[in-house]
Amino acid sequence: MIFRPFYRFDTGCAAYLLGCGGEGKCVVVDPHERSVDVYLAFAASKGMRITHVIDTHVHADHPSGGPELARKAEAAYCLHESATVDLDFEPLCDGQLITVGNVRISVLHTPGHTPESISLLVTDLRRGDDPWFVLTGDTLFVGAVGRPDLAGRARERASELHDSIHERLLTLPDELEVYPAHFLGSTCGVGLSGKPSSTIGFEKRWNPLLSRSRDEFVEALSRVPPAAAAMERLVGAP
What is the chain's pLDDT, residue by residue, as a tens digit (238 residues)? Predict the structure, then answer.
């Protein structure tokens, strides 16, 4: 597998390119609009063709580079099937598998930050049948979780987020690596670490929100600072 994170330290955004070097195919996840040509150049340098561009959710802190990247790469642009956006996309459903050579990507619907949020469980079949890492989007961060207020009904979304994290992510193996869509510098969560990756086991042990009851979790997230007006314009209530 070829796996390359792309970090924007000015905005605390992370994007990821992953794929199979043998078959020359790859996927880009959560691309930033100002880095589209960077992803294309890296893929070309490795002799790879981008086949899928996936946004884990409709982004609020920056316009997605997904549609433009998909157009330039002649790739499928993908969102969860529940996304409400005014553009064409290939719908993804919970449990769906995307196979790119020796790389297998399993879609996990993890609503809470937004209704359409997904995480992507990645397996490198050359290493074995067990998953290697999970791309958690804005559901689970290092030391924090995604804010639940951007799509309206914040307390309801916070309860959904609690269930997504505890029932879908924390049930994964402790040694599984975690790569979120943001780190310190983003406004999509509160208390994010400057370290851009972690493991499931480390977050279970040290993430302060994950040891709270559902009620405590919801109450804590109800106190996040108000979203900026620009964020509310990018992600409207469904």
Answer: 999 999 998 889 999 999 999 999 999 999 999 999 999 999 999 999 999 999 999 976 667 899 999 999 999 999 999 999 989 999 999 999 999 999 999 999 999 999 999 999 999 999 999 999 999 999 999 999 999 987 668 899 999 999 999 999 999 999 999 999 998 877 777 788 989 999 999 999 999 999 999 999 999 998 776 655 444 444 443 3
Overall number of domains in the chain: 1
CA 116 to each of CA 44, 106, 143, 173, 237: distance values in angstroms, whole numbers, following the listed order? 31, 15, 22, 24, 12
DSSP bridge partners of 146: 189
Structural domain including 114 reads 2-224
**Residue 238 covered by a domain:** no
Q: 């499931």: which residue's tokens?
A: 200
CATH number of the domain enclosing 28: 3.60.15.10
112 found inside a domain? yes
Q: Is residue 235 part of a domain?
A: no
Terminus-to-terminus CA distance in the chain, angstroms? 37
Query: Any long-range contacts for 73-81 (C-beta under 8 Å, 24+ apart)?
Result: 73/40, 73/43, 73/49, 75/28, 75/50, 75/51, 76/51, 76/52, 77/53, 78/52, 78/53, 78/54, 79/54, 79/55, 79/116, 80/107, 80/109, 80/116, 80/117, 80/118, 81/116
